Amino acid sequence: MSARVHGEKIWLDGRMVPWDEARVHVLTHTLHYGLGVFEGIRCYRTDDGRSAVFRLTEHVRRLFESAHINLMSIPFSREVVTQAVLDSLRANGLAEGYIRPLAFIGDGVMGLNPADNPVRVAVIAWAWGKYLGEEGMERGIRCRVSSFTRHHVNAKMQKGKTCGDYVNSILAKREALLDGYDEAILLDTSGFVSEASGENVFIVRDGVLKTPPLETVLEGITRASILELARDKGIATQEATITRDELYIAEEVFMTGTAAELTPVREVDHRTIGSGKRGPLTKALQDAFFDVVTGRDPKHEAWLSYV
Questions:
Q1: What does pTM read for this prediction?
Q2: CA–CA gap between residue 241 and residue 225 (Å, rounded)
Q3: How far is 45 from 50, CA to CA, in rounded Å?
Q4: What single DSSP character describes residue 107?
Q5: Which residue in 9, 161, 173, 210 is the catalytic one?
Q6: Which residue from 10, 71, 120, 255 has the fewest beta carbons nearer than 10 Å?
């Protein structure tokens, strides 16, 4: 069971407020209809004792792009939201942590048209460990292919992180957990591998690193980072469709995301993946990723925003 999230301060609509006073009305439009956008961002303690946010610029950019896709106008600049992320970490005394910027439609009128209801913005930061568990990072997790299908690209626009879209993820995740698995992998409407409930999916086959193309998946920031780190290492990469049975016969499978970081998969639908443990390419990319976020990789220091 996950620990209750709690902290000292939350940035809400331009000011820091005590954690338990960051409240909204029950008629908040997003609460009823799901139209809101968010990001998940991580801050890491670097080897020199400082704290650095991973790819903060890219995350804030995607937040504003998600809002634009959904016809929401965020009433603060990107610079203000970026500073709010850093200020939230300081206000909560976090050397490491997870940050959740959220833009949502406030109360006013009801009905599907939010009209002139205000767009409100919160930035929340808290301590959060390994999303899929410390053991999962080393040993690998067990997954099932979900009975739920990922959104069609014209039903749910794939470039935005929209709050209501994650009902699909919740259903898939709960189904997997109830069936004794750790995570769900969803197929797209054509039957090809799309994403996990909250992560991008990679496989290794014949030494080639392969991940589904952006047409059917969220443009993951960790996904893009891993592809670049793989190319740095001379690993062949492909962005191409993956069939369900390709998962079963892959040498390695892993997932990427801000929360999950880079988590190996040891089993899918009762089929052992490779040797049944974290593979060598997965381990190499894990090491490369953590070298970046802890400040040990000067080549990618631009991906870090120091607090």
A1: 0.95
A2: 20
A3: 6
A4: S
A5: 161
A6: 71
